[in-house]
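Hello Y.,

Per our agreement to keep a running log of every chain we model this quarter, I'm adding this entry. I've kept the format consistent with earlier entries: sequence first, then predicted structure.
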Amino acid sequence: MQEVKVPVEKLSLYQREDKIYPRDVTGRFAVLRRVAVFVLLGMFYFGPFLQWEGRQAVLFDLPARKFYIFGLTLWPQDFIFLALLLIIMALSLFFFTALGGRLWCGYACPQTVWTEAFVLIERWFEGDRGKRMKLDRGPWNWNRIWRKAGKETSWVVLALITGFCFVAYFTPAYDLARDVASFEVSGWALFWILFYGFATYGNAGHMREQVCKYMCPYARFQSAMFDYDTLIITYDAKRGEPRGGRSRSVKREDTELGDCIDCTMCVQVCPTGIDIRDGLQYECIACAACIDACDDVMDKIGYPRGLVRYSTENAMAGKKTRIFRPRILVYMVLLTGFASAFVTILATRPPLIVDVMRDRNALYRDVGREGIENSFAINAINKARESRRYEITVTGVEGARIATDTIVEIPAESVLRVPVAVRVPHEFAEGGQRIEFTFTAIDGTDTVVTEDSRFRGPTTDY
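Predicted structure for the entry above:
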């Protein structure tokens, strides 16, 4: 019996992607996108150098465990604000996605913003789409070398500046700049500058659309937030098909073709390389470059704009679009509730936090005629930007009094450990009883903070 050999087909787990050369585009959405890029990058790069009342306006001081945001100082005990803020941001993403599609991706996502900046530098050195493609296909001559070297050098400089500014939000910016200039920067600061610089260089300079298509999880679950009334970028197939080229001299009503002249301009300007005429795809970041390109073509041939436009699936099917629908109303209610809670808690948070801890070495001491004594260590955190004086009182057990100093001054934005001894007459010191410490401001403010603990007596059953 003759053996038959079956050819084995080798499958690759990695699909090689062709390099995308997005064409430059002008139009109302391109202007809006570039304004967003300059505003957001301006806020990022200049933010660490802004001063507010004598200190850095935005500083996340991890060693001191304090977050400074203009006139607001947040402590580890204010973790609830971070939790609420994350919830608000998540709900906002769901709300705006359900309402307007991937607006975040197209105009405000850091990947989009920095990619726009890197592509702008690339155009400065290598030219627009056609010139870049010709340059990459050509030989390695002096023209190609200096253009590529200039582009890569500019990318590296911008990436390092990005890494520096990122670290400057966690280390005082002017001190960090002085250390870098004098080559005295610490090892960890240098590591994070290089790390975030390399990440920016790789993501925005070389990976670009691959991050959006393969690494970003948002592209994968966005469809769960879409419905037939979500605003998306669409191609009007009824109007555009059948597509085909034609002379400018041919009138629109004299041809049996649709309005799409198959110029592929919408594909050439797309930063992710998709064809919007194939329908909505998860790779689409809703940057609206295809809308600007198509509108420009329609203007040139004398056709009405809107062949590619922002619309909804219901509108494209001739149905009415509903803005206020159940999921939008739910998101609005939740957003309003959490935002109100965030503002209310932030506005009413006390300037003083008190944490009472019992002495672990001795449950109680018999001090003779003075009664029974318990020792406590009170951590008092003054969140105010000036020192505050407080009077400490104790209640809850008859005859209880504080045997140590009752007036304390807590420096501004600091933690003061206050040792407190509480004495109770023998006849009232039996059992474990609840007591309450009260800090009352005596410097003209109306701050009153209470914290409870337990007073232990000699007959307490442990």
